[in-house]
Amino acid sequence: MSDELFSRRESVKDILKTIEKKLKNGLFEESMDCFDRIMSMDFEYPNLYENIYCVKFWINRTEKIKSLKENDITEYCTFLDLSFKRFLMFIKDKQFNIELLSIKAIHYFVYNEIIKTIIEKNNNNIQNKEELYLIANAFIEFDELSKALQAYRYLNDLEPYNSKILSNIAQLNHLLGDEKKAKMYIREALFYDPLSIEFENITIEVIRDIRDIIINRNIHNSSNEEIILWMSAYGELMNLLDIKKPLNEEDEIHLRKIISKLESDYRKFKLREATAPRLLASLAYLTTTLIMRNNKEDMAEIRMLGSKMASIDKELLQYYIKILNDKG
Fold first, then answer.
1. Which of 53, 115, 132, 212 is the most exposed place for a label (fewest CB within 10 A)?
2. pLDDT in tens, 253-311
3. Residue 243 phi/psi, 5° resolution?
4. pTM higher than the cut 0.85
5. C-alpha distances in angstroms, 246 versus 48, 230, 235?
6. Can you say whether residue 274 is alpha, beta or left, with left for phi > 0 and alpha for psi between -120 and 50 degrees?
7. Each residue of 137-157: pLDDT tens digit?
8. Radius of gyration over alpha carbons of the chain, in Å?
């Protein structure tokens, strides 16, 4: 009797291997025949019904998947990615074990399909921003961080002031062990558009340090949005973001245009409170650039920028002045 049971369970395992192979190739409907065979052999087999529920989730999307693949590759890959994110919510609601065979196999199918499809379409020369995002995140799903970083660098070339891209580059460098580059890129990300950063995905330690300082200083309302808006100014003036990339001429012109617009807004009483953190960060950013350039002709402007920063937050500026004096 025990030998018979062992033999039966081995055959079920063989069928599960076939199911895994089918799911990794996106053959959702075809895998259901295999599940039916298992049910006829052992309808109480562990996790059988959970796996079936997972596959049915994707069977309901099969027609749209086929249609998009035939008509629009970018939309097809986007739909796969969004569908898997919804699938994860479905799994969480059902409280299924994330290690289920069907979940892992479908994960492989989705992100391998995205990578394969985009590379085949572009012959390895990907220029479409949406497709670069998709393939970068697919590489992250497979823990291929160096390849993901390369894709995000291409995106950074296309959109140099995009904080979402910059923060992802920072996080990937952090995960790859390059803390200097992580700091350098998160500094830029916090400066340009901090509210677009997905902080739930960022584990760079300096982010927590800056946040704690802002909260402990207790002069802001400590709403999450206000804390984020002040992070660049604090990181800059307290020199927590101490790995800095010199600005090229184009970047400096862009920065000066930002300052001009912010100073105009700051003169309007209704906009002053909202503008203050960004203006202070911008003035500090330009000051740092001029100091790094080490040109005596810039000293008058540096003093003028210091005066402007003092009018916004004199106490915070003192930290910056002390750091500069300590450095000699």
1. 212
2. 999 999 999 999 999 999 999 999 999 999 999 999 999 898 999 999 999 999 999 99
3. -105, 110
4. yes
5. 58, 22, 16
6. alpha
7. 999 999 999 999 999 999 999
8. 27
